[in-house]
What we know:
about 50% helix; about 15% strand
Amino acid sequence: xxxxxxxxxxxxxxxxxxxxxxxxxxxxxxxxxxxxxxxxxxxxxxxxxxxxxxxxxxxxxxxxxxxxxxxxxxxxxxxxxxxxxxxxxxxxxxxxxxxxxxxxxxxxxxxxxxxxxxxxxxxxxxxxxxxxxxxxxxxxxxxxxxxxxxxxxxxxxxxxxxxxxxxxxxxxxxxxxxxxxxxxxxxxxxxxxxxxxxxxxxxxxxxxxxxxxxxxxxxxxxxxxxxxxxxxxxxxxxxxxxxxxxxxxxxxxxxxxxxxxxxxxxxxxxxxxxxxxxxxxxxxxxxxxxxxxxxxxxxxxxxxxxxxxxxxxxxxxxxxxxxxxxxxxxxxxxxxxxxxxxxxxxxxxxxxxxxxxxxxxxxxxxxxxxxxxxxxxxxxxxxxxxxxxxxxxxxxxxxxxxxxxxxxxxxxxxxxxxxxxxxxxxxxxxxxxxxxxxxxxxxxxxxxxxxxxxxxxxxxxxxxxxxxxxxxxxxxxxxxxxxxxxxxxxxxxxxxxxxxxxxxxxxxxxxxxxxxxxxxxxxxxxxxxxxxxxxxxxxxxxxxxxxxxxxxxxxxxxxxxxxxxxxxxxxxxxxxxxxxxxxxxxxxxxxxxxxxxxxxxxxxxxxxxxxxxxxx
Length: 616
């Protein structure tokens, strides 16, 4: 069952069931993306599947290649193993191997093959060792990473000159742990010595290298099978979790700082706004006209709800931001319930949640566009669907082409490309349209029942905008609205980047949820504060300015990306392209998310204060 709906002979049968086709595709994607093998139970002497995955330079984790692209022993027929959608997206390419492992059966050192090496083969292996290449294999569901080999320097004739010797790992000593009938641990040649290595410094005519392996089983009843994958991944992390106390201390420190800033801003806003409101509300009707002599946000009641320029694109950006925000919250909440230890699980969850939340994105965009008097609602929905996926497609197309040129597994296979396009065309886009139709009709019903969605009428001619003071300038707002929210997450970014661009597995999703909530809260509060300053300066152009807070945070985020890159050993055109362009896409996503959140905080604030005064 492929999950796709089948149609009968009549063409009308297909048209009568479009929703069935959409649900069928969604079910197919869910099965492919979120499949997770149940704890495998093995009887004695049952075969344990050993899969070879990929290889990569340690400094360039995105530059991945197929394992058998290098001169290792391989089966006569290379068979791909099943992978989830998330594994394919992260560049995994699981294939069969020559290593024969059976449950609780020890195997002495056994030669699996002898391979004659050409000069080019030895050169390729030596270059890989120079660049600290790693390879990954799976014993059952447990991943193992190991280096190709080692390089050492030796003195020549007791002189200062040294010669470099290259050693290739040609003997894998598997140590597999079990708990009753389940595999709970796997390790391969953790401490290298001469019996695991072969010298490949110099190539000789007819050079033959033997590849061998051995298997030793050990009982580990203290490891529950449900935690086997988690413990396996944590055991392979460099430096483990020794900095956990520092991590928690930094998060708490950041949290206290954000609470202090938030309390200060809320205090200023509440005191000033309440003072202004009480001042205006105590004025009798006959004296209302006298207030026009004064300055302040009250004077803008006939301009503050004036529709912004390019409202179609503005509403599309707000809708896409709402969709991305809800997607991130969904992914983090799932991580809080159970961390993503399965390889590719985060990517799978992100893809599924992005498709589902497209309904919200269409609803938010179309509803706001209708309130602003927009007429091109179909184009608005279309632009909402492309607001994030358009730039993502352009960046992906370039990077996928680069990966194909390099022969990397980071390039998506053709069936995966077709599946991704089908998911967008058959699920994401229709849900965006559906949400847009619902949002537009609901906004129209509210307008018919309640009249204008805004508390004040708008004049035909816009009010002249006077000059502003330095703390009311856009530059000041951009700096404050970028720096303060970024300070709430920059510590957590270090751990996230080490997970995305390094070997660590991120697991503290509860802390990430706190940091993300602080980010949204501070971004919204700072934006509301500066919007009040601008309104008091008689500047009614708050729509795009409130959205620009997201741009400010994205600028600080991308500056941190550059700083992080300089601290790593990443090199080469492919890795640099992947890092900077995907970081640019993440910055655009942050712009949409925080721009949307900041706008709606400001939107409700402006409606609140202007609905509490009497304005003609």
